[in-house]
Amino acid sequence: MTSSDQLVHLHFPKLGVKGAYVQLDQSLGDLPAYAGYPIGAQALLGQALAAAALLHANVKGRSRISVQLQSRSALRLLYGECSEEGGLRGLAQLTEGSDAPALDQLGASAVLAITLESRSEQNRSGTRYQGLVPITSARLDQALEHYFATSEQLPTVLVLAADGSRARGLLLQKMPLDEHPDAALLDPDGWNRTSMLIGTLGPNELLEADRGTILRRLFHEETLQLVDGLQLRFACTCSRERVESMFRSLGREEAMAALAESGLASVRCEFCDRDYRFDRIDLEAVFHPLTQPGSTVTQ
Ligand SMILES: [Zn+2]
């Protein structure tokens, strides 16, 4: 079954401008912790997930991208991630009983981190790139524009909007001229015009109007091509193997110390609520993978 949760690529062939539109409904409700968050955190998490999907529109190959916000305020962590299969996962960590404050109330230590992890056939362990900027804006879309202005050097404008059940995002980016074989034919005013038009789109209109209405209202005088991108859905990438490698990185002593009185070490995935349980024999096998139960030879 196809859901309406999708990324759509936008291309203005005569202007040297590209972009993306994202719509999230079902995937937000499918996030296990989402319904339990207060409304401000829900809206911010919806925006972070929409942003991760929009940023994924520009990424090639096997990669996942995350938008993360950390602060010493009541909102300690906000995390939204989009994988190459369109899997979305995310969470908010809040001080007990608090909602997320406005972004410009997060305090001086608040940072926004964009992380891109890429893998290829040649490099299976992957490469990781992270850009960090302080948060000085009241809105997440403005903070991301600041990130692009300082880290990526690519003129970028975007609008994000979300409430307790849906999220929308629209992004435009000026294409580097070297991506254009016929750059001389491009409308030199194209970027100024389209970026000014998107500036007239408020979050309320983005949330309430459908994609066709918004794109017609903004760009009816431009040649605009739409290409379907990723279908988006909630999906977690956790696995028992990943928990095992986490235990390995802790070391045997600490891993064994995690065994509770019950004799079980339990690791719960914060994204999907799955519970991974290890008893002493499981943990021994993590550190001595060849000594599997049943393979011991006795003489
Ligand atoms: Zn998980």
CATH superfamily of the largest domain: Hsp33 domain
Spatial separation of the terminal alpha carbons: 57 Å
Mean pLDDT: 91
**Strand portion, in percent?**
25-35%
The SSE string, one letter per element, is EEHHEEEEEHEEHHHEEHHEEH
CATH topology of the largest domain: Hsp33 domain
Q: What is the overall silhouette?
A: globular
Give an account of the 3D structure.
It contains 9 helices and 13 strands. It is α+β, with helices and mostly antiparallel strands. It folds into 2 domains: 6-234, Hsp33 domain, CATH 3.55.30; 240-287, Alpha-Beta Complex (CBS domain Like), CATH 3.90.1280. The strands form 3 sheets. The chain has a 6-stranded mixed β-sheet. The longest helix has 18 residues, at 39-56. The mean pLDDT is 91. The chain binds zinc ion. Zinc ion (ZN) binds next to loops. Zinc ion is lined by residues 236, 238, 269, 271-272, 274.
